[in-house]
């Protein structure tokens, strides 16, 4: 729990630049030392190869892991050592770390102790509104993390469909429905159904809609929700199949952004589409070299059944355009190994041909301190997507070239000249086998205005 100006707490945290006053303080940048005599945690922030904000994040994370009781954070001592960054951003980072680290995460262990301590930030009462927004924002960061963390035997497409329908229906003004196989067939969302063929669970396409800006543009948020990705008949090796329960992260993020915006009563019109299904093998699973007609009429040769994410996104984008009349499209997906190789756990890849969309996202990311890196979609990438199939309009997997860019290029054929931005977040959204809820904060900040 976070409060402001609750002074009568047992412990305190103070930021220092060195250990001159107490040699027992570890002098390493970003380190935290607890001195029992004064009941004080000393967080070292100093000039170092590590950025100030990273020192703050790592130090606060360590502090929460060793917290002994209700603690007051000396905000003034922190901002005095981080002078080139806005106080508002520093305050946000403190809230982010505390709310992230104290979240009661999904677990199936018998005995788990949850942190119930108060962490107070000693700062101006003018920060109260910002604190409330941070609590709301991080509520849905943690909601996304929980969606990510459910094990695949529990976190099926049916499970997510039911859970999201129940949870989102409680938010005023947010309309929600779930499209299953019969409705998807009627809507000619054949690419989604092709990916779903091998599953023993129906696809669940969760659609959340919110309208609170009369005469304003309508935004689409489209998320890949592959609850477990075996690769289909292009089966993944053991090395690459670990963590494939996280292949539904794009949909988890999109659903969480939508719920956060609606609960905040943001002045926005949006439709959020979470495309939940499995990609499995079996008697009915789609075969490599199959040709499927997409919702927008283009035929697609499935040259790689492990390139399934772009297939469900393609139909989701077309649904947003043709059924919901959107003006702007953002999709979020753990889409390619190529982007993961390029950026690792450091940033999400962004592909767009619209500079203004990139500029808005980049500006918001500087406020939230989440990282994004723009990558190209060249004409050659689009040509490859068209020319690498002899029998169909497009292929879902090109014979050569940068996989991240050709995947993004594939999706542009379904954007129908709408403003379109694709986020590929293959590795940044989890650390080991724990979800991070990444991107929720940045998209919330960008779209709430």
TrEMBL record:
<keyword id="KW-0031">Aminopeptidase</keyword>
<dbReference type="Pfam" id="PF00883">
    <property type="entry name" value="Peptidase_M17"/>
</dbReference>
<keyword id="KW-0378">Hydrolase</keyword>
<dbReference type="GO" id="GO:0005737">
    <property type="term" value="C:cytoplasm"/>
</dbReference>
<feature type="domain" description="Cytosol aminopeptidase">
    <location>
        <begin position="304"/>
        <end position="311"/>
    </location>
</feature>
<dbReference type="GO" id="GO:0030145">
    <property type="term" value="F:manganese ion binding"/>
</dbReference>
<keyword id="KW-0645">Protease</keyword>
<protein>
    <recommendedName>
        <fullName>Probable cytosol aminopeptidase</fullName>
    </recommendedName>
</protein>
<comment type="similarity">
    <text>Belongs to the peptidase M17 family.</text>
</comment>
<dbReference type="GO" id="GO:0070006">
    <property type="term" value="F:metalloaminopeptidase activity"/>
</dbReference>
<dbReference type="InterPro" id="IPR011356">
    <property type="entry name" value="Leucine_aapep/pepB"/>
</dbReference>
<dbReference type="InterPro" id="IPR000819">
    <property type="entry name" value="Peptidase_M17_C"/>
</dbReference>
<comment type="function">
    <text>Presumably involved in the processing and regular turnover of intracellular proteins. Catalyzes the removal of unsubstituted N-terminal amino acids from various peptides.</text>
</comment>
<dbReference type="GO" id="GO:0006508">
    <property type="term" value="P:proteolysis"/>
</dbReference>
